[in-house]
Amino acid sequence: MRLRRLGPEDWATWRDIRLTALSSDLEAFGSTLALERTFDEARWRELLRPERGVKVVAEDPEPVGLVAGVPHEVNPDVLYLYSMWVMPEFRRRGVGEALVADVLAWAREHGWARVQLRVFQDNATARRLYARLGFVGEGEIMDYPLTPVS
């Protein structure tokens, strides 16, 4: 398995794995398959522009998982980790861990103060993964500080 950070030229790769994720786990995302199927090439390319954060896929050799890190809409010091998904047959093999670790590495490289995510309270498997990777939080929001909190 290898990880690959995507740019606008990789729009079809991101589109395909994203639509696969949305069709596989309908309740896991803040978007819908119906909505994202309407996106044209320009919209997919826009989502992958460097100023919109980082998009990462895990490949074996085809994409088997994805994750995104984007600037938080409200707090400019926070990178928001979202859309982490791994194909069911590749789960519990370290793919999700590797994807999240790559976003955390990218965040450090680009000077983010913290990474934050939202995970549903009843998603115990994901909460355990994020806690194991250093995220903290009792509610649906979990944080990962990248710089010391004063």
In CATH, what is the class?
Alpha Beta
Number of strands: 6
The major sheet is characterized as: 6 strands, mixed
CA radius of gyration is 15 Å
What do we call the CATH topology? Aminopeptidase
How many domains comprise the coordinates? Answer: 1
Spatial arrangement of strands, main beta sheet: 1-2-3-4-5-6
State the helicity in percent bands: 25-40%
Query: In CATH terms, what is the architecture?
Result: 3-Layer(aba) Sandwich
Low-confidence stretches are none
Estimate what percentage of residues fall within beta strands. Answer: 25-35%
Overall SS class? alpha+beta
Q: What is the mean pLDDT?
A: 92
Straight-line N-to-C gap: 38 Å
Continuous helix count = 5
Quick rundown:
The protein is 33% helix and 25% strand. By secondary structure, the protein is an alpha+beta fold. It has a single domain, classed as 3-Layer(aba) Sandwich (Aminopeptidase), CATH 3.40.630.
Summarize the topology.
Blueprint: E1 2-5, H1 11-24, H2 33-36, H3 41-47, E2 54-59, E3 63-71, E4 78-86, H4 95-109, E5 114-118, H5 124-132, E6 141-145
Parallel strand pairs: 4-5
Antiparallel strand pairs: 1-2, 2-3, 3-4, 5-6
